[in-house]
Amino acid sequence: MHEQFLNFILALVIIIVIAKLGGYVSTRLRQPSVLGELVAGLILGPTVVDMLHAWPVFAGDEHLAESIKFMAELGVILLMLLAGLELDLSDLVRSGKVSAVAGTLGVVVPLGLGYGIAVLFDAPPEEAILVGLALSATSVSISAQTLMELGVLRSQVGLALLGAAVFDDILVILLLSIAFVLLGGTGGGGVEILLTIGRMILYLALAVAAGLYVLPWLIRRIERLPISQGAVAFVLVACLLFAWAAELLGGMAAITGAFLVGLFIGRTPYREIVEHGISVMAYGFFVPIFFINIGLEVNMREIGTGTGVVYALVLTVAAILGKIMGCGLGARLAGFATRPSLQLGIGMVSRGEVGLIVASTALATGQLSATGFSAVIFMVMAATLVTPPLLRASFAGDPAVGGEAK
After folding, report:
1. Boundaries of domain holding 20
2. Residue 153 within any structural domain of the chain
3. Residues 145-174: what's their mean pLDDT?
4. pLDDT per residue over 74-85, tens digit each?
5. One-letter-per-residue 3-state SS of the chain
6. Which of 43, 204, 224, 249 has the smallest count of CB within 10 Å of its CB?
7. What pTM did the predictor assign?
8. The domain spanning residue 262 has which CATH number?
9. In a domain, 402, yes or no
């Protein structure tokens, strides 16, 4: 076998073993297993031991990190597919008002806080806008995993959380597209903005039509064929295709497409068969790689000292409070009681890969300074780490809690 492939195998062994150990320790400490997996990734990453670059066995393998990243991206796609399978589409539609208001305010409030803090720390207005957008983004996959562990993903809060995340994703991508058009000075801004909106509407319309009419028809016929695991294979292909189209056609996050497939397949009689097949694959292999890879991609030591540390800490506090206040207030205004509103706000705190994408894109285009980038990276990682324990604490004593850890 090729040496690079052997390195890849060894790295996967280490990642999966450490992830499961981290999850086990976390559950023993009465925390969600995802917290232990995130911390394990942080330890394996450049923040502590820098496994992929400092260990002699992996040093110099320039393709290893990219290969692991691809596997991690498959992990988050499968995780959101499972989240969709857990839910009832009609229940999700009924939570539409709460999702819309909470998702919108959950973007507006952190955006304003991030902009104000960045300006306070002498960032130019253009950079401050992008810092605010990084604070506005939400990565609901980590919260979804925590809610599944607690057995409350199908609860009022879980339904509203996932719905709000869809509104958040659409609004942040739209605002980000507008910001890059206006700040980039490419001209034709109005046309590009309209095209962005049109792409989203077109994708969602096609996805809903295919999900309601085409997917159920196809899975019925495929399940009758003498094909090993035909239904699971079909759903996996549909999930990847919808995820691909979400990015390419809709300009949205790939996880949105995967989540939609889960919702539509969840309406069919094959939900349990598909969920069992995908769960084994996801939780046994791909999802642990996703959580570990978050830590492998960031270096918390780059935050520096002095003003940089203060900037990062203030930004992190604003990121956490901004989502809790914005989404929580939105849920309260839409009719939620105080505690579910707080739970929803906490569930939207995690930034994960969405915040990293915003920061990386802005840095690559020269619209975000190195100091701003380091502060945003610290904020993303800190917000992601605090979400599982805060979410679990917010559900303490809740009669709806009763799930088992994956």
Report:
1. 3-394
2. yes
3. 84
4. 998 998 899 888
5. CCHHHHHHHHHHHHHHHHHHHHHHHHHHCCCCHHHHHHHHHHHHCCCCCCHHHHCCCCCCCCCHHHHHHHHHHHHHHHHHHHHHHHCCHHHHHHCHHHHHHHHHHHHHHHHHHHHHHHHHCCCCHHHHHHHHHHHHCCCHHHHHHHHHHHCCCCCHHHHHHHHHHHHHHHHHHHHHHHHHHHHHCCCCHHHHHHHHHHHHHHHHHHHHHHHHHHHHHHHHHHHHCCCCCHHHHHHHHHHHHHHHHHHHCCCCCHHHHHHHHHHHHCCCCCHHHHHHHHHHHHHHHHHHHHHHHHHHCCCHHHHCCCHHHHHHHHHHHHHHHHHHHHHHHHHHHCCCCHHHHHHHHHHCCCCHHHHHHHHHHHHHCCCCCHHHHHHHHHHHHHHHHHHHHHHHHHCCCCCCCCCCCC
6. 224
7. 0.78
8. 1.20.1530.20
9. no
